[in-house]
Amino acid sequence: MNRLFSALASRLSTTVGTLLVAAGLAGCATSQHPPAPAKAAVPEYKYVIGPGDSLHIVVWRNPELSATVPVRPDGKFTSPLNEDMVAIGKNPSELAREIETRLKKYIQDPVVTVIVQSFAGPTSEQIRVVGQAARPQALPYRQKLTLLDVMIAVGGITEFAAGNRAVLVRAAENNKEYSVRLADLLKGGDVSANVEMLPGDVIIIPESWF
């Protein structure tokens, strides 16, 4: 009888061990989505002004018309001789030319420079990090921004994160989904897991299964 119990216990132990290993492998498995391409920077990217940006408007030889103004949530701003002018969706050079056109009513041959002093960018171009990040948030896009840059900005991943099952949703490619290996990148120092971002990317970090 003791021999029978020993055999049953041994078989049960083996079965439980097999299940635990299988569960562990499932929890550590990466996403079924294709890996994100390493290079993705937009050639000749031009920053697009968004709500929350701060603009320094310089009118050459007319300091009284120069000002530093915020872009309101409605995408507009007000500066001397320019009331409720739309800034959102334009790059600084485009906006400068439009201001010059308006100022021609008041001064001869105006020369305007628009300098973006603080950056938020339009919501359509922000990088969003959701799920098991230390500080989930939206970040302004910049040229050559990488996954590692984004993860440093959000403070990395939580202890409950399944980093290697994270998904990158790429709005620029009709919301195509890619897998990204955050655990390998952040905890293993695997630089091959680092990839470049595109405007509008969303990084989804799931919770670990165990």
Average per-residue pLDDT, rounded, comes to 87
CATH superfamily membership of the largest domain, which one?
A: Outer membrane lipoprotein wza domain like
Identify the overall geometry. Answer: elongated
Can you list the strand order of the major beta sheet? 7-6-10-8-9
Largest sheet: 5 strands, mixed
Instruction: Spell the H/E element sequence.
Output: HEEEEHEEEHEEHE
* End-to-end separation: 37 Å
Radius of gyration: 26 Å
| Residues in helix, % | 10-25%
Kindly report the CATH topology of the largest domain. Outer membrane lipoprotein wza fold like
| Low-pLDDT ranges | 1-30
Q: Which CATH C-level class of the largest domain is it?
A: Alpha Beta
Portion of residues in beta strands equals 15-25%
Which structural class fits the helix and strand makeup? alpha+beta
Number of strands: 10
Description:
With 210 residues, the protein is an alpha+beta fold. Helix content is 24%, strand content 23%. It contains four helices and ten strands; from the N terminus they run αββββαβββαββαβ. The protein is elongated. It starts with a helix and ends in a 5-residue tail after the last strand.
